[in-house]
Amino acid sequence: MKVLVTGSHGQLGQQLASLQSAACREEEFIFTGSDELDIADATAVREAVRRMRPQVIINCAAYTQVDKAEDEPERADAVNHLGAAHLAAAAAEANALLVHISTDYIFGAAGDNRPLTESAAPNPMCVYGRTKLAGEEAIRAADCRHLILRTSWLCSVYGHNFVKTIVRLMQSREELRVVNDQIGSPTCAEDLAKTILHILRHNGPTDEQLGVYHYANEGTASWYDFAAYIVKYAGYEKSCNVRPCSTAEYPAKALRPSYSVLDTQKIRKTFGITIPHWKDSIGRLLDAYNPEGD
């Protein structure tokens, strides 16, 4: 089986590259970054898929700068929406499976604060969320074989993410103020990558298993809880005080969901996976992360 991975320079793309040689020995993986395959270019996508002839396309490419997207809506849409549409059209033509990574940011303000199932009504509050939702809709409209995996608060030893930002700041500041009224589930990219490879390794998904799934690490947290755990785990709680604040006290250009905990029962039952608690996974991430290596 030949697998094409887009967005290979991002967190999840790099994590898949680091794991696939051991997990999927019989598959041939082709990793492409935006410099090699710009998914916003319909012609380039179509020609690449025709040339490479993959059976699976894993789309890790995304415009993920949430605040910057408010100033660059066309660029965000070109990648998150139109890029997904181009890949879906090419996948449909090639009869390939498209595994597409989406986000909890397609959801909006808190409802009854219950974990969100795959059938929950989307209501994105920012350009990033709207363009990612449009990408999902384009994939469904293309009628290709697809898995859409929505995830949240993704972190890893690769790329730019919340864990690495807090590690850097706690070493130079005596105090950090972090919002405590946005609730979600931190997710380790390594765990998500392992789940994707597990599904492929077990010859899945079947046609009955296609569709939308939620994947996030177990447990919930505010960004404040998340930051406080990182600082304590790293042994900096005496030298760096983490203080909670409200979203109103720490305004950002893009609005974020106030509650975006994802219900993961469907993916656990369908594919027989166990999902670790976020504290366990983030602890392993911190053990593996070497700030001096960045």
Note down, in words, how this protein is organized:
It is a single chain. By secondary structure, this protein is an alpha/beta fold. 40% of the residues lie in helices and 17% in strands. The protein is built from ten helices and twelve strands. Strands 2-1-3-4-5-10 form a six-stranded parallel sheet, sandwiched between helices. Strands 6-9 form a two-stranded parallel ribbon. Helix 5 links the parallel strand 4 (97-103) and strand 5 (145-151). Helix 2 runs parallel beside helix 4. The longest helix has 22 residues, at 73-94. It starts with a strand and ends in a 6-residue tail after the last helix.
What is the structure about, briefly put?
The chain has 294 residues and is α/β, with parallel strands linked by helices.
* Structural class category: alpha/beta
Overall mean pLDDT: 94
**Beta strands, count:** 12
Global morphology: globular
For this entry, give a set of tags.
40% helix, single chain, six-stranded parallel beta sheet, alpha/beta, 294 residues
Please describe the topology of this protein.
Blueprint (H helix, E strand, L loop, with lengths): L1 E5 L4 H13 L4 E5 L9 H11 L3 E4 L6 H4 L3 H22 L2 E7 L23 H16 L2 E7 L2 E2 L6 H9 L4 E5 L3 E2 L2 E2 H13 L9 E4 L6 E2 H11 L7 E5 L19 H7 L6 H11 L6
Parallel strand pairs: 1-2, 1-3, 3-4, 4-5, 5-10, 6-9, 7-12
Antiparallel strand pairs: 8-11
Helix pairs in contact: 1-7, 2-4, 4-5, 6-8
